[in-house]
């Protein structure tokens, strides 16, 4: 049972403010992912929660208790570092048992707890080895094991998978998700990789420049990005953006003029938007349909064939558009492509970067991993 | 950028071309041999040239006084006369014991004071840290003569004159800046994460230093200590001016032979050899360790 | 990012202060107390030979000191000594490091022999050079000169400062070698190989790859050596006693002569103050050199 609240957290290094007032609620047993480009302050935020860095102002509360002045070890947290930070001069067993040793736990008890944890992570055969003799994935597991042994109320992960190769990363991702289920603990996870965020999180916190851009479930962020930054950051390949002019706007929708001269109606609340305003239209590559009668046209510049999918990079008058197409499309570089997109999935962003509110909530936007599980269970019945 | 290697060819032409170039390969090998020979000669020549004064001193100690001032020669009948004469005049072991006590005592003390200081500079830096470190080093640049008189007077009033404790204090302070600086460079190389992980695991500052920092930077701490021992052992100014008989280390022992008996070269050489032998052997044995320590810190 | 920065200013600052306190306060005491006393004495009439002459001297000691040509000579000698020894040890040390980096039979032992002078106490090395190497009649160098039909050089009377430079350089060359060799071992082989592929010969590799790599190590050598060379004393004391005339009197030795040989504590202290100021000027240059090195 552990919740975490951040209240108007500010962090200043000398004269630069790296965290500019962050508020956040983390519920019990939630898997929260901080995601953002490098330098956005996500690691600093995590380190402040860990107690390795002190907040310049604001409150950090665990289970309702303010813990700003409490030392890192007394907060009852455990952290997995990007570099794993294993103690190179200790065996795996000693690494995992170090915190217990410091806490004065007896040798037998220590041994028992370490073995128990090692079993969960399949580390038993490695207990006598030094970190140097382990592979990257094994070190990662030891680092996680060291955290588990402490039986913390909240787990903190600082980009734990970024030093692993792609295949191992996928495997560890799954293992971590499984671990979350098994331990039923609150976890906070920092990454710059939006795929990790999308796949593991109950709740994603998108950070940029020390400010929280949006908090929400993966699907909410995907379907209802609050602003242009989140829209561009979440989803792969990235969302396309095209400058458009408002032809007609109202509470029931906005009609915009695309660069090719075609008009298109987007179901967003355009209350107060004047005709003639320049907005940015955003639509995802996967929401584009190739259509010889489509309203948009461009010349294919680059083709990336991934096998099952093909990415086409299409030159439009004012932008390079990415199109996700079927693996079997027969287009060639230089071909002219005509296409359209689903206006229901499109977004409009004002000059301040904020999205105009969508008229319909996407049905999956409220979904989190717990629900996912419920759905799959219902499906299997 | 790498260029493609020529493909190994198993065709008849390939073999033919290989046989054609065989003589060239032979000359190349020959010149490689030649190069190696020259290198060996040069390397050994230079090192013997540098070592020669020490070798010569050691040899002179085994000569008679007459042979010592005769034309240089490597051929002589060795004698221990000079050694027994020297030992009869002053008890070598008393001085040596003083040197060992003072060198190791001051090193231990400097490490004890230096480790926490270097730890805080490396892991809890403030805006003043760099300035403090440089200021510490700059205290080393003051000529000791400049402050000899006050120190002498202070030592006289506190009864530290001619005591090993007094010398240990002076040497500790003398080596502290270098010790702190070297430790700082070693500590700074230790990934911060590891100490932070320790802090998350509940280690106090003291436990962090003892369980994590010290074992992990042991080579660096060792080489710092070795350097401090060597510098203390060889220090002459303070030992000559602050000791007379009780606490006099080997530098004073040598000095007592230098002026009046400067002409008795064999005896002087015997005494000198005895004075440097312990630290020379110590240096030889630990030089690998010293290099290892330095590699991972200061001069990486 | 900001990971290298201090943690919380108040808590971290306090902790770091308490940990540094012993070292800093001891050094501060070690520096300030004698410094204060030296400063005090430098304004006093204080000659151990004339105990009746006491009292405030004002700037008398400084006036005497600055009008004494010995001071400028001593400063000049100090700088010459430091400068030449640095040049010889850094250049020689680099060349030796390149040499001992190569594989050859017995390299380990040769290397150990070459760094041996560093372990020899200054008094001993000065005595050995004075009596057995550079002695005009019985020294090895004199003998060598005679063998080759040249007239032996009386080192300490005709080339006094050069002789001191040779002795000190001999002592410190191994140190430079040790540090530079260590640094060279950490040079990435890939870099050298890449340069070779780009068509660099051994000389080009040395100047464009090896030397830049050694920059940091060279600055370490310069810094450490400077600290010790500025206060060279034993070598001069044992060999020339500052002479002939003032030819080998450096600042450290000048102060020694004034305060301990002439028993003029006041004048000696004034010299000490000058030496401290000079040391601080050098320290400022040093700070520039090292500060860059401390950055990363």
Automatic annotation (TrEMBL), chain A:
GO CC field: ATP-binding cassette (ABC) transporter complex, substrate-binding subunit-containing; maltose transport complex
Listed GO MF terms: ABC-type maltose transporter activity; ATP binding; ATP hydrolysis activity
Residue ranges the record marks as coiled coil: none
SMART domains: AAA (SM00382)
The name this protein goes by in its record: sn-glycerol-3-phosphate ABC transporter ATP-binding protein UgpC
Domain ABC transporter: 4-234
The keyword Chloroplast appears for this protein: no
UniProt cross-references to SUPFAM superfamilies, sorted A to Z: MOP-like, P-loop containing nucleoside triphosphate hydrolases
Stored InterPro entries: AAA+_ATPase, ABC_transporter-like_ATP-bd, ABC_transporter-like_CS, ABC_transpr_MalK-like, ABC_transpr_MalK/UgpC-like, Mo/tungstate-bd_C_term_dom, NA-bd_OB-fold, OB_MalK-like
PANTHER family assigned: MALTODEXTRIN IMPORT ATP-BINDING PROTEIN MSMX (PTHR43875), MALTOSE_MALTODEXTRIN IMPORT ATP-BINDING PROTEIN MALK (PTHR43875:SF3)
Lineage start: Bacteria, Pseudomonadati, Pseudomonadota, Gammaproteobacteria, Oceanospirillales
Entries under PROSITE patterns matching the protein: ABC_TRANSPORTER_1, ABC_TRANSPORTER_2
This protein's record includes keyword DNA repair: no
CDD domains, alphabetized: ABC_MalK_N (cd03301)
Keywords from the UniProt entry: ATP-binding, Cell inner membrane, Cell membrane, Membrane, Nucleotide-binding, Sugar transport, Transport
Superkingdom of the source species: Bacteria
From TrEMBL, chain C:
UniProt superkingdom: Bacteria
Lineage: Bacteria, Pseudomonadati, Pseudomonadota, Gammaproteobacteria, Oceanospirillales
Domain ABC transmembrane type-1: 75-286
Topology relative to the membrane: Multi-pass membrane protein
Keywords in alphabetical order: Cell membrane, Membrane, Transmembrane, Transmembrane helix, Transport
SUPFAM superfamilies, A to Z: MetI-like
Family: Belongs to the binding-protein-dependent transport system permease family.
Main subcellular location of this protein, as a coarse class: membrane
Localization in the cell: Cell membrane
Designated name of the protein: Sugar ABC transporter permease
Coiled-coil ranges per UniProt: none
BP terms from Gene Ontology: transmembrane transport
Transmembrane segments: 21-43, 79-100, 112-129, 161-182, 217-238, 267-291
Gene Ontology CC terms: plasma membrane
């Amino acid at each position: 049972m552990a919740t975490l609240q951040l209240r108007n957290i500010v962090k200043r290094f000398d004269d630069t403010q790296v965290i500019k007032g962050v508020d956040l609620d983390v519920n019990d047993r939630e898997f929260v992912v901080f995601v953002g480009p490098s330098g956005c302050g996500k690691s600093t935020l995590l380190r402040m929660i860990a107690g390795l860095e002190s907040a310049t102002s604001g409150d950090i509360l665990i289970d309702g208790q303010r813990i700003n002045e409490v030392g890192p070890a007394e907060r009852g947290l455990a952290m997995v570092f990007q570099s794993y930070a294993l103690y190179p001069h200790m065996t795996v067993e000693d690494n995992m048992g170090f915190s217990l040793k410091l806490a004065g736990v007896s040798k037998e008890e220590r041994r028992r707890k370490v073995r128990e944890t090692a079993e969960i992570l399949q580390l038993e055969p490695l207990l006598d080895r030094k970190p140097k003799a382990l592979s990257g994935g094994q070190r990662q597991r030891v680092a996680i094991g060291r955290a588990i042994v402490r039986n913390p109320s909240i787990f903190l992960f600082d980009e734990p998978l970024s030093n692993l190769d792609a295949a191992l990363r996928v495997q560890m991702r799954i293992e971590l998700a499984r671990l979350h289920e098994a331990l039923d603990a609150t976890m906070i996870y920092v990454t710059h990789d939006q795929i990790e965020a999308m796949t593991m999180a109950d709740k994603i916190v998108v950070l940029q420049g020390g400010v929280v851009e949006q908090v929400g479930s993966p699907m909410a962020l995907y379907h209802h990005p609050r602003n242009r930054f989140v829209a561009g950051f979440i989803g792969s390949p990235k969302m396309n953006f095209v400058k458009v002019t408002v032809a007609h706007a109202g509470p029931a929708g906005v009609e915009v003029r695309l660069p090719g001269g075609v008009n298109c109606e987007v179901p967003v609340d355009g209350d107060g938007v004047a005709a003639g305003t320049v907005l940015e239209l955003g639509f995802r590559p996967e929401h584009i349909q190739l259509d010889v009668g489509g309203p948009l046209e461009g010349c294919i510049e680059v083709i990336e064939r991934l096998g099952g999918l093909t990415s086409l990079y299409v030159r439009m008058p004012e932008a390079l558009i990415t199109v996700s197409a079927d693996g079997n499309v027969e287009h060639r570089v230089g071909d002219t492509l005509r296409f359209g997109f689903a206006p229901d999935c499109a977004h409009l962003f004002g000059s301040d970067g904020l999205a105009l509110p969508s008229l319909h909530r996407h049905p999956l936007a409220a979904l989190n991993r717990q629900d996912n599980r419920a759905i799959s269970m219902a499906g299997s019945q | 950028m790498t260029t493609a290697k020529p493909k190994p060819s198993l065709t008849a032409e390939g073999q033919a071309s290989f046989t054609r170039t065989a003589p060239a390969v032979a000359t190349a090998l020959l010149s490689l041999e030649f190069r190696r020979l020259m290198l060996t000669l040069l390397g050994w020549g230079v090192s013997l040239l540098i070592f020669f004064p020490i070798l010569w001193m050691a040899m002179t100690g085994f000569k008679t006084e007459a042979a010592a001032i005769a034309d240089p020669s490597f051929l002589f009948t060795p004698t221990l006369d000079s050694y027994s004469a020297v030992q009869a005049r002053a008890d070598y072991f008393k001085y040596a014991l003083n040197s060992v006590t003072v060198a190791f005592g001051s090193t231990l003390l400097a490490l004890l004071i230096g480790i926490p200081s270097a730890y805080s500079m490396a892991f809890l830096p403030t805006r003043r840290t760099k300035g403090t470190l440089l200021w510490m080093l700059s205290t080393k640049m003051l000529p000791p003569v400049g402050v000899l008189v006050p120190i002498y007077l202070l030592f006289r009033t506190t009864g530290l004159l001619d005591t090993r404790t007094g010398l240990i204090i002076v040497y500790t302070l003398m080596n502290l800046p270098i010790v702190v600086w070297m430790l700082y460079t070693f500590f700074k190389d230790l990934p911060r994460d590891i100490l932070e992980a320790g802090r998350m695991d509940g280690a106090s500052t003291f436990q962090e230093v003892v369980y994590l920092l010290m074992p992990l930077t042991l080579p660096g701490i060792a080489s710092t200590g070795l350097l401090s021992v060597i510098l203390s052992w060889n220090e002459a100014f303070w030992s000559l001016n602050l000791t007379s008989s009780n606490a006099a280390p080997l530098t004073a022992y040598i000095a007592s032979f230098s002026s009046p008996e400067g002409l008795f070269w064999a005896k002087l050489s015997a005494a000198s050899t005895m004075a440097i032998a312990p630290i020379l052997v110590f240096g030889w044995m630990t030089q690998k360790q010293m290099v290892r320590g330095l590699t991972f810190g200061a001069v990486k | 990012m900001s990971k290298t920065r201090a943690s919380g200013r108040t808590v971290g600052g306090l902790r770091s202060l308490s940990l540094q306190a012993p070292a800093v306060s001891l050094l501060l005491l070690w520096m300030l107390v004698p410094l204060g006393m030296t400063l005090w004495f430098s304004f006093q009439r204080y000659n151990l030979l004339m105990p009746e002459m006491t009292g405030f001297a004002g700037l008398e000691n400084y006036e005497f000191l600055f009008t004494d040509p010995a001071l400028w000579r001593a400063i000049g000698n100090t700088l010459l000594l430091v400068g030449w020894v640095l040049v010889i040890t850094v250049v020689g040390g680099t060349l030796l490091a390149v040499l001992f980096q190569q594989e050859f039979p017995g390299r380990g032992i040769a290397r150990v022999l070459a760094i041996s002078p560093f372990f020899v106490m200054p008094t001993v090395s000065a005595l050995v050079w004075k009596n057995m190497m550079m002695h005009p009649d019985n020294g090895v160098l004199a003998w060598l000169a005679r063998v080759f039909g040249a007239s032996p050089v009386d080192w300490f009377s005709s080339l006094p400062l050069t002789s001191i430079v040779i002795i000190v350089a001999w002592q410190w060359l191994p140190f430079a070698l040790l540090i530079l060799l260590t640094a060279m071992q950490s040079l990435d082989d890939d870099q050298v190989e890449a340069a070779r592929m780009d068509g660099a010969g051994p000389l080009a590799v040395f100047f464009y790859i090896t030397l830049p790599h050694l920059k940091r190590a060279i600055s370490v050598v310069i810094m450490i050596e400077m600290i010790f060379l500025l206060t060279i004393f034993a070598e001069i004391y044992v060999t020339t006693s500052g002479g002939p005339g003032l030819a080998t009197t450096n600042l450290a030795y000048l102060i020694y002569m004034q305060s301990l040989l002439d028993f003029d504590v006041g004048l000696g202290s004034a010299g000490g103050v000058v030496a401290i100021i000079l040391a601080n000027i050098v320290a400022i240059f040093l700070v520039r050199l090292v500060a860059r090195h401390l950055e990363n």
